[in-house]
Amino acid sequence: MTSNVKTVGILTAHPGKEAELRSLVEGLIGPSRSEPGNLRYDLWTDPSQPGLFVIDELYVDADAAAAHQASPHFQHYRANIGALAERRALSLQAVAVV
After folding, report:
1. Dist CA 42 CA 29 (whole Å)
2. Helical ranges in the chain per DSSP H
């Protein structure tokens, strides 16, 4: 049995880069949700912390997650994220998920 792959990206915009970061991450939503192995792709923000974004991703398996990372829209993101934000990514394994 294959396991789903959960990734959470936590992005904090560099000062003055909040709007550019938002545009970059919003541009990932449609193409990522359209990928064959994508189960969930959500963008969250904390209204009390402007410039903080959380990307919540779920894929059917490791191959689907790898295909996402190889996609043109993700490669565009990777090429630009460093100039816009500090990034932390978590790869998570299910323990007790409903």
Report:
1. 7
2. 18-33, 62-70, 72-84
